[in-house]
Amino acid sequence: MAAMTEEFDVRPARLDEVDDVLRGYEWLFAPPGSRPPSWNSDWARIAVIDAIDSDSSNVLIAVAAGRVVGICTAYLDILSVRYGLRCWVEDLAVDPGQRSLGIGSALLAAAREWAAGRGASHLELDSAAARTDAHRFYEREGAHDPSLSFGWYGLGAGS
To answer: Using CA atoms, how far apart are residues 135 and 133, in angstroms rounded to an integer?
Structure first.
């Protein structure tokens, strides 16, 4: 386990940091999470590159002592009739050895700031039922109106 640090910077990822971002997904796959059955490392690399290059998405990283210790992907994705432009946080993960140091909070704040600067009215994410620690974190961060999310997988492309 890496030594805990209290100094870190949050910033957009660069294309030369794709491997570092991809390593951060292992934090999401660790229990209580799991690797999605359709996970494909080659496709994930392309998706991260596209997200870094796009004006409608942002890949944020937290860096401490020259190492990525947190990741957050945010996408402007739906212009809702009821709520306006939504920013969706798809992935938010912090190195388990670096948790409870404010990294997740800083990443989420940076995602909210990025989204607001692009006209988003709200930010949403979903979280598996087993991730009770994450749920407590989201509530501490001021999330409101928790809901259930339902998914259908294997619909075609990428499955």
So the answer is: 5
